[in-house]
Structure formats: structure tokens, C-alpha cells
From TrEMBL:
Species assigned in the record: Macleaya cordata (Five-seeded plume-poppy)
Record InterPro entries: aa-tRNA-synth_II/BPL/LPL, BPL_LPL_catalytic, Cop_transporter, Octanoyltransferase, Octanoyltransferase_CS
Entry's Gene Ontology molecular function annotations: copper ion transmembrane transporter activity; lipoyl(octanoyl) transferase activity
GO CC terms of this entry: membrane
Membrane topology, record value: Multi-pass membrane protein
Protein name in the entry: Copper transport protein
Amino acid sequence: MIISIAPVFGLAPVHQNGNRAYRPYSHYYAVSKLDQISDLNASDPTSSRTHHQQQNRRCECFDLYKELVPFEKAWSWQKSIVKRRHTLIERDEDSSDSLIILQHHPVYTMGTASSEEYLNFNRDNAPYDIYQTERGGEVTFHGPGQLVMYPIINLRYHNMDLHWYLRALEEVVIRVLFSTFSIKGSRVEGLTGTWVGNQKLAAIGIRVSRWITYHGLALNVTTDLTPFQHIVPCGIRDRQVGNVKSLRERLDCLQSYKYTYQEPHRCYTLLRSFQSSDLFLFYGVKRMSPRKTMPLWHGHANAPHEEDDDDAHDILLGDHAEILFSGWPGTNTGMYILALVFVFLLSVLVEWLSRSPFIKPGSKHVAAGLTRTLMHTVHAIRFGLAYLVMLAVMSFNGGVFLAAVVGHSVGFLIFGSQLVVRTETRALPDMGC
């Protein structure tokens, strides 16, 4: 299915997907906006008087996945957004949902059902800070290498059923694990979260205030699992906690599989797969082709310095930026250039076939059946190219757009333009009486 990946945070357009949209903010702007959200008297730039029309709703994406954000600060952001949403609902101006993506400094959090019997240490001598929160569930750990996502959603526009919402979050993780890492996740009856065998990869804990959700899910990607040994995660003693890194190493038997800092854009595959799924759209998960690499995230042991990759995304070439559909080679420069060459040659071929003497409506050529088949083929290719160009324009993929336009132009000049095509001068027949 179709998916579009924003090329550069802060320069990305508002992507329409189904009948909703998400907007990934730059790191700096996301933090600034979140810090200012507590001012309830400020005007909301995302407000719209047409909010009651569901097709006009948006989802603001505060994409801070490279940041280690203190839990208390992120918790404050969520509560401020929820408070603001209630105020906007009262004003009849609520027009958007929110999604915060980040990592946390090492911390333990406890839910409303938490008991200190699940702490394997004296609380006064805790290895990390402990926060008692209003979310559901038991104690868990957050730390570097863990993708934490906080959807703040008005369920009135989706489904006012908390069990449905929890199952939807689980389903998102299951599908993303399979489409991004080729890992088959599952549910466990009677338990919340996403599992692979006996290991829990994603913990889910939510709070709902007048149908506005907050808190959310935490997926262990390269998380150090040692801190989980000091607690009984989620109050479940007979099961373990796992991470994506360990599972992928086992699946690939440590052969031709590596984690790399030199390709931090690989995170976008995971992030955009989440953002384009029913985590906040609820209109079907968009499939993505499995990827072979995933960077060790900030804070992981022996991590080399990771350079800022914001400038590494080339809007023109789409180098590790654009994925238009499953299997699109947008994360490898060489493969991407080959794809552009293919689009170019296909465009030239269409121009040639369109002007071929074998394709003439009403022709009495001996191969009339073949002629009709070629006509239908040309129309199908034209439609496919037009659809691809439309996707390229919507996702700011300049490479595909230019390849198609240049291909059609060259084909027209060679096969259709009088500037290039030479016509033979034939002697007129004898017109004598």
C-alpha cells in the first residue's frame, strides 16, 4: 500500500492520508510549541471552525525521537495538551490530535494499579527516579533505545471504546514489527501489550480524560534490558522482556545484519510506519517493505558520535527520504537512481508507442488484436505514470517527478516533434486528365 515519508523535518508538507493528516515538526519547533502549549489563552494555530467535519482533522506530530526527554517534562506536556484540548472543545474549536515521539532518560514509572511488591529494591535506594502516574498498568522502565509514543487523541472522532483503543495500539505494533523488521508479534489473551513468544516488546499504558487519551506505548528497539531485572515488569512474573535488536540478531543468525549509526535515516522507516498507521489514523495500516538495518539509538553502550542527519535528506534525489510504495528503493542511492532511470525510459517508451504506426484507432492492420492490446497497454502505462507523478508531487519527491517529465519531453522531441522528425517528400502522382 502507499506510504509517503517526509524528507526533512520542518520542511515536510501536511500529508493527507485517508481523510486525515499528520504534520511532523522540527525538533526545535516541537519543543518550543510543547513548552508554550500550557498557555490556554493563546490562540491555537491548528484550530478551525470546520472541526466538526472529521475530514478536516489533523494530527500534529512532535517528532523528538533523537531527544532524551526527562519523563516529568514529557508528562507535563501531555497534561497541558489534554487541558488545552478540553478548553478547545468547550470553545467548539477542537480540530486536531497530537502525537509525541521521544526517548526518555532512565526512569521507572508506576501506574494506578502499581504495587511496591513488584519493585526488587528499596524505594529509598532506587537505581533510577520513580514516578507514580495516573496511567493504567503496573511498573515499567523507560530508557535510551526505547521508542516512546504518546498519542493524544479525541476518541469521539474514532470509537468511544477503551478496549478497542488498546487493541488498536497492539495491532499497530504487531503490523509495524512485521512490515519494518519481519518480526511476527502477537497478543496474549488477558494481557495488554505486544509479544514475540514469551517476550514482551511493547508495553502499553493509557489514561483517558473525557475521551481524550494520553500516555501510550513504549517499544524496546535497542533498550538495555538490565534495568527490567530490578522490577517485575507490568506485574507479570512468568514472562520476559525483549527488544528488537536481540530478536533480529537471532533471526539473522548474526549474518549480514548490522546496526549502524552511519544511516540514522533508518529510524524514519519505523517512525513513518507508525505515523501512517492507525495509531492515530485508524483507517488501516500502510505496509512498508522490511529493512535490514536499524541504528543503535542515542545513549546505547559504545555508541559513536551520531551526526545530525537533517541535511542528509535530498529532496531532489530522494536519497534515504522517500518511500512511495512497498519495495520502493528509496533508502539506497544507487537503487534509487536506477529507479529514476526506469521511470525515464518508461516515459520515453510511452511517447514512442503512442506515435507508433502499429497503434492507430480504426487501423485495418493484420494484427488488429495486437494493436488493441498495445493501445490498452499504453493507456495502462500512462495511467500508472500519472499516478506515480501524483504521488511524487504529494511527497515532494523531485527525482521521480523530474524523471517522468524529462522522459516524456525527450520522447516527444524524438518521436513526435516536427523539429526532430523528418518527413519524406514524395512526388505527387500524375494529375493529368
